[in-house]
Design goal:
Blueprint (H helix, E strand, L loop, with lengths): L6 H14 L7 H12 L5 H11 L9 H22 L3 E2 L2 E2 L1 H4 L2 H18 L7 H25 L7 H26 L4 H28 L2 H4 L5 H4 L5 H9 L2 H12 L7 H14 L1 H22 L8 H10 L5
Antiparallel strand pairs: 1-2
Helix pairs in contact: 1-3, 2-6, 3-4, 3-8, 4-6, 4-8, 7-8, 8-9, 9-15, 12-13, 12-15
Length: about 325
């Protein structure tokens, strides 16, 4: 097939179609915040993955735009509500929706974005049911992942397997769904749909482990936001959980006490102390190895998809770029 587009071409195609797309306007109090969050950027990874998966089988990728937009609207809905729960004031360098407007408007706008995402899928009447099955399952798991993440903040019984399940649900299932939905729209065989999903799921887990690494050991330029945020919020990431296994008893008890004391504010000195404990544990090496495991598993599923290898190059390159931010 000669019509394989690069990731850059797919990004430009989606962005140009999005720029011409008209969201509802009335009532403005409901839809203006939606248009705002959709307009302030983002990597558009999920819609591009959907288009790339579709392009493995068919050339006219513009047909899949509404499918990609449904994912992007849903993703931004989750960010909008996450920002409210986290009391975040900045998103992509701009005021968050609940700061720019108000919290009630932000909640209601998030609600309508979820509904609107489903409405966008109505274009595909021939594939609506299988698309909705994937989308509904994914939507539920994303909410479950967010709930697990919040629950982890107040419990000491989190395991590494718990954490990996949480990031699978909160982050990677939406990446997996994007690829599978692209395949569904293109009429891909069932076995390929399974491999597309597993490719995305494992890619997403590797990406989140890398994000954890960057948050502690990277730079603001690499991460795209302030370094040390996970430590400040006392998030029980893989780095924290694995370090408890690797440190000696007194060091592990100190790390645990910092994270579990709800009355202890994380000032710069405490953040620096936690970073030092993570350095002492050599957890960075373990996290890098785990990331590599999921990265290789992801690429093995991409290799198993039954299309010519040269057609997979854009997805291989995107996977490489997502996972190549070094720490």
């Amino acid at each position: 097939m000669s019509g394989i587009k690069t990731i850059t071409e797919l990004q430009e195609l989606f962005s140009s179609q999005l720029a011409e797309y008209s969201f509802p306007q009335v009532p403005s109090a409901l839809y203006e915040p939606m248009e705002y969050i959709m307009s302030i950027g983002g990597k558009r990874i999920r819609p591009v993955l959907l288009l790339a998966a579709y392009n493995l089988y068919k050339e006219e990728v513009a047909v899949a735009f509404e499918g990609g937009l449904a994912l992007e609207v849903f993703h931004n809905f989750t960010l909008l509500h996450d920002d409210i729960m986290d009391a975040a004031e900045i998103r992509r360098g701009q005021p968050t929706v609940h700061i720019k407007y108000d919290e009630n408007k932000a909640i209601l706008t998030g609600d309508v974005m979820m509904i609107y995402a489903y409405q966008l899928l109505e274009k595909y009447s021939d594939y609506y049911l299988p698309l909705c099955k994937v989308f509904t399952q994914t939507s539920r798991e994303v909410c479950e992942g967010q709930s697990m993440d919040m629950e982890f903040e107040t419990t000491d019984s989190v395991t590494i397997s718990d954490y990996l399940k949480m990031i699978e649900y909160k982050t990677s299932v939406l990446i997996a769904a994007a690829l599978k939905m692209g395949g569904i729209l293109a009429g891909a065989p069932e076995q390929d749909l399974k491999h597309l999903y597993e490719f995305g799921k494992n890619l997403g887990i590797a990406f989140q482990i890398q994000d954890d690494l960057l948050d502690t050991f990277g730079t603001e330029e690499q991460l795209g936001k302030k370094i040390g945020g996970d430590i400040e919020q006392k998030k029980k990431t893989y780095l924290y959980l694995k370090s408890l296994e690797l440190l000696n008893e007194s060091q592990a008890n100190r790390l645990r006490s910092i994270f579990l004391d709800q009355n202890l504010d994380m000032d710069d000195a405490l953040v620096a102390e936690v970073k030092e404990l993570l350095q002492i544990s050599h957890v960075k090496v373990h996290a890098e190895e785990l990331k590599l495991v999921y990265q290789q598993l992801s690429l093995s599923h991409l290799s198993a998809i039954q299309v010519p290898d040269e057609q997979k190059i854009p997805l291989q390159e995107l996977a490489h770029s997502l996972l190549n931010r070094t720490v």
